[in-house]
């Protein structure tokens, strides 16, 4: 829909503040928030053409709204895809993608380490409707390849993963998918286009939880799918129109404004995370640090090549302590001793967040499943925000010095 005219070849930082729908007749400099459920039509013939999809024009905010369109255009421009479609949440975006691409009998190959609700959605909800799925190692390409069947339609990856920051090779997975006649979708929540552009590495679809770094200040739930014009127009817009997994214009506007500072936030938060990871690695109370920016990370080189030389803003670490009892009590002691950080399972905020995955995000797994996933009782995840690093270290020291 009527994009603002911009010169060719702009950089991500410029697109982040400029890409949007064209301004209204009032010439507003900051993009307007269009809180309206429907749009009036000039006459019946125009209305008929717009409802039939023969002419662009706003109709009804379940599937067309200028504020939402601005967010979609901006995110697509930043990801380097032709188009994007917003959804009510990150999970809503993945639901939209699966509804648009899959039918009974189709098969999905997905990493075992992706966001827990993604596994529940694909294996559980879509399983009920006859979509088959296989879950494979995040990092073992041979396992991905072996899992592909003749009716495999989609490979789904997320990199780096939560909370262990495992990295997979997007280009290699894209090649595998394309050889099999399937599509590769990448959940780019942890890196965002500021650090990693999956489409430039061959991914067909990029999904986002806008709730995390895109908003960046912990205010709204939002999501989006970025892909080609054809995929969005032919496969996803019809589902959105029928299913109504719609992002509200207000939430879209908040994310639109969040995108303006995405580049500098990701840079600043990644730099803090790297320094924190180095400090943790040398701390006597810490057993192991999981951070792609550290040379000790098993996929460090791949991560640096794929993520603009940055590790992202999430650092996880194991505190010392024997499984399970003293491991859990030491983790709780470190977390409960903090006076500054937020104890919550979200991430992607300018406020630093600390959590014990074993009792929160991964609390529904059995002890055995959790250990198989490498998530022990002594694991702590820190999603680094924008506080001064000395204050973050001091906050962690309160508990670490007692372990
Ligand atoms: C949070 C998250 C989601 C789901 O997003 P919501 O906006 O909470 O629905 C999906 N993928 C990843 C990697 C996430 O961290």
From TrEMBL:
On the tree of life, the source organism's domain of life is Bacteria
Q: Which GO terms describe its molecular function?
A: carbon-sulfur lyase activity; pyridoxal phosphate binding; transferase activity, transferring alkyl or aryl (other than methyl) groups
What class does this enzyme belong to in the EC scheme? transferase
* InterPro entries in alphabetical order: Cys/Met-Metab_PyrdxlP-dep_enz, Cys_met_metab_PP, O-succ-hSer_sulfhydrylase, PyrdxlP-dep_Trfase, PyrdxlP-dep_Trfase_major, PyrdxlP-dep_Trfase_small
Q: Which cofactor does it need?
A: pyridoxal 5'-phosphate
| PTM sites of type N6-(pyridoxal phosphate)lysine | 212
Could you tell me the EC number(s) of this protein? 2.5.1.-
Coiled-coil intervals, chain numbering: none
Q: Its GO biological process terms?
A: 'de novo' L-methionine biosynthetic process; homocysteine biosynthetic process; transsulfuration
Q: In which pathway does it act?
A: Amino-acid biosynthesis; L-methionine biosynthesis via de novo pathway; L-homocysteine from O-succinyl-L-homoserine: step 1/1
Keyword Transferase set for record: yes
Matching SUPFAM superfamilies: PLP-dependent transferases
Q: Record keywords: Transferase included?
A: yes
Could you tell me which Pfam families the record lists for this protein? Cys_Met_Meta_PP
Keyword terms of this UniProt record? Amino-acid biosynthesis, Methionine biosynthesis, Pyridoxal phosphate, Transferase
Q: Which reaction does it catalyse?
A: O-succinyl-L-homoserine + hydrogen sulfide = L-homocysteine + succinate
Q: Which GO terms describe its cellular component?
A: cytoplasm
Record's subunit section: Homotetramer.
Q: What does this protein do?
A: Catalyzes the formation of L-homocysteine from O-succinyl-L-homoserine (OSHS) and hydrogen sulfide.
Query: Family assignment?
Result: Belongs to the trans-sulfuration enzymes family. MetZ subfamily.
Query: What is the name of the protein in this document?
Result: O-succinylhomoserine sulfhydrylase
Q: What is the lineage of its organism?
A: Bacteria, Pseudomonadati, Pseudomonadota, Betaproteobacteria, Burkholderiales
């Amino acid at each position: 829909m009527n994009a603002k005219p911009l010169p060719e070849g702009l950089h991500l930082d410029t697109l982040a503040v400029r890409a949007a729908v064209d301004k209204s007749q009032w010439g507003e400099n900051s993009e307007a928030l269009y809180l309206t459920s429907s749009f009036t039509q000039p006459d019946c013939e125009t209305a008929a053409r717009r409802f039939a999809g023969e002419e662009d024009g706003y109709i009804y905010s379940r599937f067309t709204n200028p504020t939402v369109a601005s967010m979609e255009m901006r995110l697509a421009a930043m990801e380097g895809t032709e188009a994007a479609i917003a959804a009510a949440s990150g999970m809503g975006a993945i639901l939209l993608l699966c509804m648009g691409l899959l039918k009974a009998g189709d098969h999905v190959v997905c990493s075992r380490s992706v966001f827990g609700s993604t596994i529940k959605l694909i294996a559980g909800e879509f399983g009920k409707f006859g979509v088959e799925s296989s879950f494979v190692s995040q990092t073992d390409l041979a396992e991905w390849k072996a899992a592909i069947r003749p009716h495999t339609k989609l490979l789904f990856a997320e990199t780096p993963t939560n909370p262990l920051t495992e990295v997979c090779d997007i280009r290699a997975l894209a090649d595998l998918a394309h050889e099999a006649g399937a599509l590769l979708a990448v959940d780019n929540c942890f890196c965002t286009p500021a650090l990693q552009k999956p489409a430039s590495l061959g991914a067909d679809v990029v999904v986002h939880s806008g709730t995390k770094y895109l908003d960046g200040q912990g205010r709204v739930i939002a999501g989006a799918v970025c892909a080609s014009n054809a995929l969005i127009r032919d496969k996803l817009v019809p589902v959105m129109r029928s299913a109504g997994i719609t992002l509200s214009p207000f939430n879209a506007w908040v994310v639109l404004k969040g995108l303006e500072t995405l580049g500098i936030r990701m840079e600043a938060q990644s730099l803090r995370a790297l320094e924190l990871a180095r400090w943790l690695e040398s701390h006597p109370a810490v057993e192991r640090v999981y951070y792609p920016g550290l040379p000790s990370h098993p996929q460090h080189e791949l991560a640096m090549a794929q993520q603009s030389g940055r590790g992202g803003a999430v650092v996880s670490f194991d505190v010392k302590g024997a499984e399970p009892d003293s491991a859990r009590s030491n983790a709780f002691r470190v977390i409960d001793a903090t006076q500054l950080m937020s104890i919550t399972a979200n991430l992607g905020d300018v406020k630093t967040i600390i959590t014990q995955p074993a009792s929160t995000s991964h609390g529904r797994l059995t002890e055995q499943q959790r250990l198989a996933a490498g998530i022990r009782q002594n694991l702590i995840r820190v999603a680094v925000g924008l506080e001064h690093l000395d204050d973050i270290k001091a906050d962690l020291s309160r508990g670490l010095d007692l372990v």
